[in-house]
Amino acid sequence: MPYFDSASAAPLHPVARQALLAALDEGWADPARLYREGRRARLLLDAAREAAAEAVGCRADELVFTPSGTHAVHTGIAGALAGRRRVGSRLVVSAVEHSSVLHAAEVHAASGGTVTEVAVDRLGAVSPDGYAAALDPATAVACLQSANHEVGTVQPVAEVAGLCGDAGVPLLVDAAQSLGWGPVEGAWSLLTASAHKWGGPPGVGLLVVRKGVRFAPQGPADERESGRSPGFANLPAIVAAAASLRAVRAEADAEAARLRVLVDRIRRRVARLVPDVEVVGDAERRLPHLVTFSCLYADGETLLHELDRAGYSVSSGSSCTSSTLTASHVLKAMGVLSEGNVRVSLPAGTTAEEVNGFLEVLPRAVAEIRARLGVPQAQESVPVAESVELDALGLRCPQPVIELARAIGTVPVGGTVTVVSDDEVARLDIPAWCSMRGHAYVGESARPVGAAYTVRRLR
């Protein structure tokens, strides 16, 4: 059964498995103790730190291990903000950061700090000028991911780091998605990552704080990990994480070239095989193994279930699920279609046959879902009114857009259709539908319940 969700968690690398088993025998003791078992454990910990630091491109004494990538992000942001509290309380983040960064930003704002979000373009990339405009004398810390976790777009970290350096602002880089493919370029100040993203075991994160960066760890501390990550470290997992990072880096260039060909095939053929689909993210400046697309008139949760039944494990940033009515903040910030969203992230070793099989299954799955939802077929309609209002209250994605598609032919060219919906996804998907179908999105107006979205027919 092909697993195509390595952006969530990569399969455990064989080197990680070997190192983990070996370290369970050799690295179970307390590395802070002076007896032989402790000294042996300390040697393993020091070797793991050296290996991880070499891969990151930092000094070993700048890197600490944490219980997770999220823990590293929260510790890094809190410590950097506290270290620069005399400068100011402004935190600058991009609108498409991982939720761990945005949750830390929410806590900072709730405690009286200021958060500035930098917008992205339709490909999901920030502009260096956007960061430059957000930096001011009261800015304490800036954050920018190295590559986006939902659409794969690579961010201009080196350029932003240079601007932050000129302004005297430390830049924290969330490198969770990219570190397995190569070091992060630029003069960044702090960096975080997560081992299970590159094929290491879960439960190991990295936090790097460059020398000279003002940093004040928050909360109770102890003598371990420079006081930045208290508690007894999971040494076997740390050893496995460092060993697997070195191993995947040795394979990265060749594997990236191979997977990029397969992802390019998916990008091209999905657009050709599936009607009304939008492939999102930058086609060039992107991670080599990841592609995301959204299918108009499809329920994302149902589509994932159908692909799972066919033997393909993929994920989604779509909000069309039973558990949430909130659109993916990444897709929302990009202004792209969110319904029927599928993220494919290929693990190392994925074959062309597995990708070709997925491309055979996908069109049938989308067509069957659309048929069950009653998606209207393209046909000539006789206009019945200059304007039509649809009550879509209580209908969830993608039904409001399906109702709009059914109604657009009932007004003449120049006429309007207004959809009243209480599904927040409509705010994103109705404008996206207009862009895809060649109609004009007039705008949104408030209603006692929900909002009214007006579309003008142009053809």
How many structural domains are formed by the residues?
Answer: 3
What is the fold-level CATH name, i.e. the topology of the largest domain?
Answer: Aspartate Aminotransferase, domain 2
Per the principal axes of the C-alpha atoms, what is the gross shape? globular
Q: Record the strand order, biggest sheet.
A: 1-7-6-5-4-2-3
Note the main sheet: 7 strands, mixed
For CATH, the homologous superfamily of the largest domain is named as: Type I PLP-dependent aspartate aminotransferase-like (Major domain)
Distance between the termini: 45 Å
- Multimeric status of the protein: single chain
**Beta content:** 15-25%
* Category from helices, strands and their pairing: alpha/beta
Assign a percent range to the helix content: 25-40%
